[in-house]
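Both lines are retained for reference:
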Amino acid sequence: MRWIAFLFFSSLLAWGSLGCSSGGGNHDAGTDAGTDAGMDGGDDAGTDAGPDGGDAAADIDLVDDFGLWVPPGQQACSLTWIHFLEMEATFDLACRVTPQPGMVRLPRDGADLEIEWIEKLEIGPAALDATPTSAGAFTHSLQGDENNGTHSYTYTQQFEAGGESVEVSFEARFEVEGGIVSEQVVSLDEHALAYRLFSFRATFNDGTSSVDSCTFEEYPCVTHRFEIEGGDVFQIEQCNFCPPEWICKATPGGLARARFVHDGQTRDVDDPFCLAHSMRHHDWGADHLVRFNDPVDGIHAVYLGSGDYPDHGEYTTIYYLDENYETIETRDVLSHGSGSW
């Protein structure tokens, strides 16, 4: 079985969690999907919970400061890309970040801002609640000068869960030209996540995950249905998006959901901690890994990868895996077409 290492540049995520499977009806995400794209945007300091609604941020007077707006309910998750030769570690660097909703007022005078901006952090295959081990703070840097320059605000905070140390980092930028600010307020929303307007990462003991959208609301998605030998069915909703003006060596994305039907038993999965997807170099192939909290006949996970270039559009074999991601059975893929939910 061929496994490809992927690294990818910064991104963002957001999702809600169900179990990895319901009856009936993501380790390394490093740096390398869009390497030629700058991160742009960002603002926040002191959290003001503005009124709910789309224009809530506009109701807060920041005077000369910058603002980072987080819509109510917004979350961000890591893209759990399949790790090179370490399938059992694929989900070790999975995380979901819930930032505090509202406006963060970022001082333009450059003063650091101590703030508990991360409301909740969940990590690893079990989505463990991480505990802060340091205070959170936005630090400021200025490239250029006040009238023509870039204000960068970087948030960092340390966490721990299950013996794993994690640092969450987030960077927002504000451009000033001729004394005029291009955007005084930026929003950490689904659009910003899809277009990767911020640098957002979670750094673990063994690697770094970029943080991106959990819902893939602004991604184009395609449903693939695979008919498997013996009457089984594997279906995935695959979402990939390369922002305009980026050069993506491997298009960022993930699985929104999956369905596995085995001997008449169905497992539906829409938990990001159980779904992993990688595009290969130049998008010449893809790998998909789905695990189940509720195994079916001893099957804890399934892996499906495409052929190698130039047969990268073909899928011939699916792997049924045990709890250690060891192969317990392989079956032929009989057909590949579009599906529906």
Q: What stands out?
A: The two ends are 29 Å apart (CA to CA). The longest helix spans residues 190-194. The longest strand covers residues 164-177. Confidence is low (pLDDT under 50) at residues 1-18, 24-45, 49-54.
